C-alpha cells in the first residue's frame, strides 16, 4: 500500500503564453459600447450601399443568376453580420478602441481607392508597383531595398499571372 497522497501535488493552473498575443501593457484599451455600435452601423451602411449597387446590376433568378447575384449575397451577409454585431455590442470586450494606428487602415483603404481610380487611366503596372511600395515602405516600415525589390517582384508576378497566364483583360502598358 502506498502512502503517497496524490492530492498534495497541485496541477499547474497557468495557461501557456503565446508569442503572437500582445501583452496587456501594449494592447490598446478595449472599445466601449458606443464604439461597437458605431462599427456595427458602418458595416450595415456599407452592406446596404453594396446591396443597392448589386441590385442595380440585376440579380437574375436562381436558375440563371445575374451579375449582381454574388455581390447581393455578400452584401446581405454584411448587413446581417452588422446587425448581429450591434446586438452583441454591450457584451463584447475583445474589440479595441480606435487609436492613431487605426488610421493606417483608413490610409490603406484610401490608397486602394486611388489605385482603382487610376488603373484604368495609366494601366496596371505603375499603380501596382507604387501601391505595393507605399504599403511596404510607409505602412509596413520595411527597408527601402526590400520595398523596392518586393514591389517590383510582386508587380511582375501579378502581370505574369493575370495578363500572361490567365489572359485577364486589364488595362496594361506592355
Mean pLDDT level: 86
Q: For the terminal residues, how far apart are their CA atoms?
A: 86 Å
Query: How does the major sheet shape up?
Result: none
Into which percentage range does the β-strand content fall?
Answer: under 5%
* Count of distinct strands: 0
Shape: flat
Assign a percent range to the helix content: 55-70%
Task: Please compute the radius of gyration using only Cα atoms.
Answer: 24 Å
Number of DSSP helical runs: 5
Helix and strand pattern = HHHHH
Poorly predicted ranges (pLDDT <50, ≥5 residues)? none
What structural class results from the helix and strand content? Answer: mainly alpha
Provide the fold topology.
Blueprint: H1 33-57, H2 69-87, H3 103-122, H4 125-139, H5 144-165
Helix pairs in contact: 1-2, 3-4, 4-5
Outline the structure in words.
The chain is an all-alpha fold. Helix content is 58%, strand content 0%. The chain contains five helices and no strands. It has helices at 33-57, 69-87, 103-122, 125-139, 144-165. Helix 3 runs antiparallel to helix 4. It is flat.
Brief overview, please?
It is built from 5 helices and no strands. By secondary structure, the protein is mainly alpha-helical.
Q: Characteristics of this structure?
A:
58% helix, mainly alpha
